[in-house]
Specification:
With 72 residues, the protein is mostly helical. The protein contains two helices and no strands. The chain has one domain (8-70). 82% of the residues lie in helices and 0% in strands. Helix 1 packs antiparallel against helix 2. The chain is elongated, with a radius of gyration of 17 Å.
Amino acid sequence: MAGNAIPPARLWRFAAIAVEFFSPILGGSILGYYLDQYFRTAPVLAVAGVLLGTFLGMYRLVIELRDFQRGD
């Protein structure tokens, strides 16, 4: 079983891909929340921030996984 272990460098790459996926979602939701508080438009901008963050996160995920598959 020890021969099938994933090298630590690959594990860090997986972690970086996960962070690149979730950070735009988290950032969009936080930004949308505070903009809703400022403009008093709750929950419109928070939902828009989550949706935009999800779209951006998926885009970054596809790009990173494509590069990962190539071995870059």
